[in-house]
# Entry
Amino acid sequence: MHSYPHYSNYQNIAEATIGFAQFARNEGLNVGIQETQDALLAANFGTLDRKTTLNFALKSIFCTNPKETVLFESLFDQFWGRKKIAVNSRRVRKNRSNIQKKAANSVVWMGFGGDGDEEKQDSKNISGANKTERLRKTDFSQITSIDSELLEEMALRLWKQMSLRLKRKMKNSPNKGRIDLRHTIRNSIEHGGEMIELKRKKRISRKQRLVILLDVSGSMDRYSFFLLRFIWALRAHFEKVEAFIFSTKLIRITDFLDVKDLENTLRILSLKASNWSSGTKIGACFQEFNETFAKKVLSGKSTTIILSDGLDTGETGVLTSELGKIKRRTRKLIWLNPLKGMKGYQPIQKGMQAVLPEIDVFNSAHNLDSLLELENYLWHV
Amino acid sequence: MFESVKDNLAIVEGFDKLGYVVDEELATILFLMLRLQKPLLLEGHPGVGKTEVANMLASFLNTELIRLQCYEGLDVHSSVYEWNYQKQLLSIKIQESNKKTEAEKEEHIFSEAFLLKRPLLKAITAEKAPVLLIDEIDQADEEFEAFLLELLSAFQISIPEMGTIKAVHKPLVILTSNRTRELGDALKRRCLYHWVSFPDLEKEVRIVKKHLPNINNSLVERLVRVVQKIREKKLDKTPGIAETLDWANGLLALEYKDLNIEGIEKSLGCLLKSVNDIQMVKSEGVGNILKEIETG
# Structure
């Protein structure tokens, strides 16, 4: 165990403050030159004569969210407190990194950098609707955390850009928004060149709903967690997203997605998810959806996205008729199937084949690019 | 700037006189904010008094409060400035017969008289450094956040037709957020940060007493205990300080000297603002909550 820096090792308070800033940076707080400088300035203004005020001042400068304040408190105790109380913070850090690990692990499945063996194993998994807990765990550990973290960062950034682009659309509007000079001048012709009426345009309102049905059955395991993150990202950037997950049962998860931080959402959902993922009864789940939720969440304006591999163990007839009902209530029905990304895939399972005529867009969802393609379809909603 | 504020304790005292109970931590940060001239980002649940901090700071420093309420779709035109188009068009019409040159006419219609100042521009051009409250920044779009970034670092705004306007006095900026989305790192790093949590028992009792001096001590304490107990539950909408005050007021109006089951059930609407929450608390039994607070 290495020894922690302590204020008593420094000559004066300014040096100790710098020392603490370095210590905090090493332990994962986002402390740069600007923050250190501010901390020194704060010292100048006499906030450092008591330990409590020192704590308050440095906290407000070094932290940017509630989670960081927890870490800060333990670092502060170590550095400015009596010597040797290091145990506590170790635990905090460990917890934190566990969460991160878990979150990072959840991006696993995309076939990025997967080797041949893995592929083979995967296809084996897909062919059966059942998968044991043990196998699922081994899958998770096979991806390095560096890869998945990078991928996750990239994904969040791209999704953010995508939603920004969708937001930028403008439309004409009678009395709100910025003046549309072009339209105004054009319109003035009928008044003999006098601009009497001002034409305006405003940002298009994105009142349309997005309804997402995610398959979390065993056969989807490799994708479902990542797709869940995708839904979460959509939830954060679009006004109205209703989300459901299904395997043998249908569960509405819109409320869980409301939780502000992603790790927490994933944790809650993963706790719930461990109960299912035996077979898939898509038809029965859609029936439940139609009976319980469809009237509330589907309207002429809504777009419905189904994320599933279409491997159904229920009766085909039910699936087709229920999907037809959904189709009639929604403006556009999109089915994203991760299997479609596989080479040589043909939608030949009887479930998938039967529903194809009902679907407006049938696309793959096996990697980031295929998810980003969704933008094109959302654009025209 | 604001050299008269000697230290954080001066802020505690000053706020106390204004009827706002501020703890030492927040006072220290406000003090730093004055000294370092950095914006302050306040995050916390709705109803913990974030907006009130800005109000109090403005009255404490005896300066103007300029408020910008953020919402989705907020843009430069409603936050910084807009030209008064109607007035400009009229003015062009009036000046048609006028002998002025084109350039003069143009200069005229793009003068300050035709400029509608929105909060941010107002804050920058104010005579005395105002408190600029940018409320619920998390509701605004990312584009606006990026724009704000520029403003908060340089404290200047450029209007293409007029040139750049630089702040005469740097405004004291307070941003609030309910964390409906995570703010950008760049914005956060420009600010001091403070998480405003729900007050503890002692502080909340003090707050209620401050607002309702006539209320009797045992009622306040039990009432606040009940509120804090209720906050621990998983509610749709957790009651804030304003709700506690409403409730205390309600109980006073109903002339209750002490808390009992009947009184609580009658007035629960002051505290909880959702049918589900009220039903949940009632079904769990108001009596049980009272018992719990007796036993501690």
